[in-house]
């Protein structure tokens, strides 16, 4: 089933799966896509919703734009609508008023007048886009995120600081959301890649009792490298990744290490 690897709108499900990226997704828009997803992540944290809610909202966003281009639909409105929708789907509801106020404060660095025209515009725009997202997704809200699978795999590994390994792996998954990886690859493959990148970054031994680490990752190195390069390329678009300790030197070293092994 094509849905095992790539989410596509139902009317597109019979098409060839030879390409993992829907034709509607323009690679030249990677930077703007990354920026809006990063803002949704920040906004969700300010509104204190769980990371799963934030992740779901960004997955909804990517799924929606499998069908439309950024020129055809206002990506900002869609992004906020996806966050608002995800908060209800994931049972961590946020008030639309709070969403608009926090969004405006972060974007404009000022307060929005609750009974003003601009507030009314954003309220109507987000509600309209929410309905559009609902119909575009076909009311299909099932998402398997990589987090649980990643945590399960980390528990099977022997590492001097498993909590730190899990945290860095978690951060790489968060960063991956700023790309279209969630609609290209199985979440288990993204989970394995996040662990691989975390191990490479931490530069500490990681073993498996009575086996090999590849047995736990259960993902081909070819796939891991493809996903890794997309995540690492993301850092070329921005000043720094979510890993606060990560430097350009570390990033390039990680790329070099992967190139040597491939």
From TrEMBL:
Residues 239-262 are annotated as: Disordered. Residues 38-135, 148-233 form the Cyclin-like domain. GO terms for molecular function: cyclin-dependent protein serine/threonine kinase regulator activity. Residues 243-255 have a biased composition (Basic and acidic residues). Signal peptide: none annotated. Keywords: Cyclin. Pfam families: Cyclin_C (PF02984), Cyclin_N (PF00134). One of its GO terms (biological process) is regulation of transcription by RNA polymerase II. PANTHER family: CYCLIN (PTHR10026). Belongs to the cyclin family. This is Cyclin-like domain-containing protein.
């Amino acid at each position: 089933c094509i849905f095992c690897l790539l989410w596509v709108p139902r009317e597109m499900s019979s098409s060839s799966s030879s390409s993992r990226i829907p034709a509607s997704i323009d690679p030249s828009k990677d930077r703007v896509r990354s920026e809006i997803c990063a803002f949704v992540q920040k906004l969700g944290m300010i509104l204190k919703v769980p990371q799963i809610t934030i992740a779901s909202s960004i997955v909804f966003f990517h799924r929606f734009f499998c069908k439309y281009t950024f020129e055809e639909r206002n990506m900002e409105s869609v992004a906020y609508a996806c966050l608002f929708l995800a908060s209800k789907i994931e049972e961590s509801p946020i008030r639309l008023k709070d969403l608009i106020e926090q969004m405006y404060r972060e974007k404009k660095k000022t307060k929005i007048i609750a009974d003003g025209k601009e507030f009314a515009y954003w309220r109507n725009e987000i509600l309209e886009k929410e309905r559009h997202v609902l119909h575009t997704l076909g009311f299909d809200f099932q998402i398997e995120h990589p987090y649980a699978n990643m945590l399960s795999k980390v528990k099977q590994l022997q590492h001097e600081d498993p909590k730190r390994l899990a945290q860095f792996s978690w951060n790489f998954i968060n960063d991956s959301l700023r790309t279209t990886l969630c609609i290209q690859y199985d979440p288990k493959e993204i989970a394995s890649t996040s662990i691989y990148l975390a191990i490479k970054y931490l530069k500490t031994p990681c073993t498996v009792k009575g086996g090999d680490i590849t047995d736990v990752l259960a993902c081909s190195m070819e796939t891991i490298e493809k996903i890794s390069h997309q995540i690492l390329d993301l850092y070329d678009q921005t000043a720094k990744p979510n890993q606060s300790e990560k430097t350009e030197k570390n990033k390039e070293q990680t790329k070099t290490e992967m190139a040597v092994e491939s």
